[in-house]
Amino acid sequence: MNWVWFHRFGSPPYFYRFAGRWAPWFMGIAVVLLAVGLYGGLVVAPADYFQSDAFRIIYVHVPSAYLSLMTYTWMALAAAIGLIWRIKICHAIAAACAPAGASFTAVSLATGMIWGQPTWGTYWAWDPRIVSQLFVLFFFLGYIALRGAIEDRDRADRASAVLAIVGVINVPIVHFSVDWWRSLHQGPTLMRADGPSMPMSMAWPLLVMIGAYTFYFVAIMLMRARAEVLRRERGGAWLREELARAGAAA
Amino acid sequence: MSAARRSALQAASSVMQRDLLLAFRRPGEWLQPLAFFALVTTLFPLAMDPEAALLRQLAPAALWVTLLLTSLLALDFLYREDGRDGTLEQYAVSGQSFTALLLAKTVTHWLLTGLPLVLAGPLAAMSLGAPPSAMPGVFFALLLGSISLSLIGSIGAGLTLGLRRGGALLSLLVLPLVMPVLVFGARATALAIAGDEASGALYLLAAMGVLALTLAPLAAAAAVRISLE
Amino acid sequence: MDARLEVLNLHLWRGDRHLLRGVHFALEPGDALQLLWPNGAGKTSLLRCIAGFLHAEEGTIRWRGVPVDADRDAFHWDMAYLGHETAMKADLTAMENLRFACALRHGPDDAALRIALQTVGLAQLDPQQPARSLSAGQRRRLALARLSLWGARLWLLDEPASNLDAAGQAVLATLLREHLAAGGMAILATHASLAVDAGRWQTWGSPAEKAA
């Protein structure tokens, strides 16, 4: 691994400039992919045999759920690196992931409920996927709450990092236990439209949407982390130069 | 001073002795969780039609939710006093393994707050209509579950050490982490009450307990160290 | 390797504040360093950094030539930290408190405990009396007794004279004198100078005085 790159990335000025440069690109790609994916999912893909057009919500629901887990893992990874190697920028990145991740989770829950109405006849069902997502939301909320409750910023960084790592170990256990729990009790069968048994004409917009969400998340994360760096490095001389330069260029 | 250096085990056992001695000098604090457990268990039948079959069906859920809430209550004072008067600080720089000393505290805390619940649990279950034949299953489920709860909860207690309104935050942090224990514990209890084979769920509970015993003390020590900064 | 503390070019930030800027010094057996800094200048932070509670962003701390990070437990074994809180349990008696404190390190020896209590002027206490009924000054003397019992080479003392009356401060001075004469080292954070004629006593008036 290129350690030079790693260390450069860990320096706030470098990250600030990097994020400022690349975030718009990621956002742009996200918008393009979103347009393509939505067109493919809402217009091009054929209607489902059983659910007709109601199934189309998976194009918003599945990427959200997928991203919520990916965000949590990414947050825990950044937190772990920040904790072990004491790289403060990683804590800023982890802090930036949390609100985005919580939002993705909330969207996946909400779209899951909206989907439930036409398909099961009820907004809420104790389905394993929904319950797992609910707990991922609790993990995110706990992380955000812990950060908010600790005044000292370094202690907040490190405590929430421990929490994120403990949580990420728990995510598969939560998933497994909820699956096991639900399989024992009768109930509506799980929506299986997002498995590989989907025909390609339905699947490709889904993959595009997942890509769109991913790029969107990276863009948002970079922007938030950049703002976090701004907040933390208020007094830094490099920042004053940077802003002066940006002001002169404008 | 010229005596031999104490081993980690000796130091840990002296921490246990000290905590037990302190508990006997102030029994009120340690009896509260048990009283809370008994009280809340009696609330369930009062809040519903106490028809025997219904109660028996509710028993696993009632028992385990009560156990969870009581454990959270008890976890609040796992590290609180020692954090406040500087004892944890001294443990951190004593030269002994901090993880071992904290684990000794957690074990003692469990003996004082968790074990009474494990012993009272079967009685509570019977009061909710469980047959006496279910008692061994209920007992083992509670035993394995409450050990996991204490271990995982010690992480939350470490993270929220010294914070105002730390109790509410502790619940928010710990409950999602211990949900699997609830699922399998309640399942094992339900199977035992129904007279079915509960060993599968008990083994899973035991596995979770082993995982907790391996990883939780490390995380708790890291969490407390961070709180001592 | 002989007992020696080296603090090399230490930089510490607390939040946004650059608290310690290049703190740099060495202590040999018999040395005492008094940090007579104003409030908020970072004397507690420096002590806690050396003790291992805080992590310095830059710089190294070496004990016996080995960086402290390499083996924290070995360093802690040679060190005793006395912070703002005395870590004495209100529900235990003085003897019990000391006994448990010693049980962490070298094992309690009741005769030595009694001698230590005598040294700090607490020998006349009722043995059944819980520490709750002791005054703040008496509890601090108890903490000093623990310090002398542990026999650590390096003492890190944060406001050791707080709550101590004149007799108590004399006890502290005696303990320090004996400790330094026996080849020990001490760093004290105080806001009022302790007049102790012992060892090689240095006083820093401000953090900048001995920067790298």
Q: What's the Cα radius of gyration of chain C?
A: 17 Å
**N-to-C SSE series of chain C?**
EEEHEEHEHHHEHEE
Fraction of residues in H or I helices of chain C? 25-40%
Give me the Rg of chain A, rounded: 20 Å
User: Low-confidence stretches of chain A at least 5 residues in length (pLDDT < 50)?
Assistant: 186-196
CA-to-CA gap between the ends of chain C? 25 Å
- What is the chain-wise order of helices and strands of chain A? HHHHHHHH
Largest sheet of chain C: 5 strands, parallel
The overall average pLDDT of chain A, rounded, is: 85
Provide the spatial order of strands within the biggest beta sheet of chain C. 6-7-8-3-9
Keywords for this structure?
heterotrimer; A: 250 residues; mainly alpha; 80% helix; globular; B: 229 residues; 9 helices
Commentary on this structure:
The radius of gyration of chain A is 20 Å and the shape is globular. The longest helix of chain A is centred in the N-terminal third of the chain and has 33 residues, at 12-44. Chain A is 80% helix and 0% strand. Chain A has helices at 3-9, 12-44, 58-85, 88-120, 128-149, 153-184, 200-232, 237-249. By secondary structure, chain B is an all-alpha fold. In chain B, helix 2 runs antiparallel to helix 3 (52-75) and helix 7 runs antiparallel to helix 8. Chain C is built from 6 helices and 9 strands; from the N terminus they run E-E-E-H-E-E-H-E-H-H-H-E-H-E-E. Chain C has helices spanning 43-51, 72-77, 94-103, 110-119, 136-150, 166-181; strands at residues 5-14, 17-27, 31-35, 58-63, 66-67, 79-82, 154-158, 185-189, 200-204. In chain C, the strands form 2 sheets. In chain C, strands 6-7-8-3-9 form a 5-stranded parallel beta sheet, sandwiched between helices. A 4-stranded antiparallel beta sheet of chain C has the order 2-1-4-5, covered by helices on one side. Chains in contact: A-B, A-C, B-C.
